[in-house]
Amino acid sequence: MMDYLMLGVSLGLAAGMSPGPLLTYTIVATLRGGGKAGVAVGMAPLLTDIPIILLSLWILHQVPEQVVHLLGIAGGLFVIYLGWETARSAQKAPALALDTEVDVSQALGRGILVNFLNPNPYIFWATVGGPILVRAYRETPVYAAAFLVAFYTLLVGAHVAIALFVHRQRDALQGGWYRRALFLLAVLLITVGIRLIVENGTAIGW
Fold first, then answer.
1. Count of Cβ atoms closer than 10 Å to residue 103 Cβ
2. How far apart are CA 28 and CA 70, in angstroms?
3. What is the average pLDDT across 30-38?
4. pTM of this prediction?
């Protein structure tokens, strides 16, 4: 069982710390709405990934690879939209935006949508996590459960830790620095979105 625990810890931490649409939006939500919003976004995988795991395992054997890439293009477009919205909010941000009221459920909903439209979880579970999970389950369901618990503890834990760290540093991002931070994150979101579109478009021969 220790092998599967270590696999879950290693892969979960790597996924949680890797730059991507969900981590970037976790930081954006924290800066715009505070720690609660960022933590809510960071916990989105707990709500999205069960169907993603099941769908990915099914996709692995049933549908053409193009379907995953088309989903990636849709995800890229949505991430670009989030970047555009963040840039607009940066222009309108007040000199001090540390007590902004935020709809945490809205932040969570957007985090869920970002993760659903992000091809990375589908690709991971179809190519890496899925085979590990199947192998572990064939040995004993306990090993499969150990892998999943370790993976999501580190994945979500990394996102939550980053959100709380950013929240504590918000005092240093007052005024112009706050607007600059939002604008840079907007650029990052748009860049990530473009990369998703280009990578997935290239994969299907666009």
1. 12
2. 26
3. 88
4. 0.72
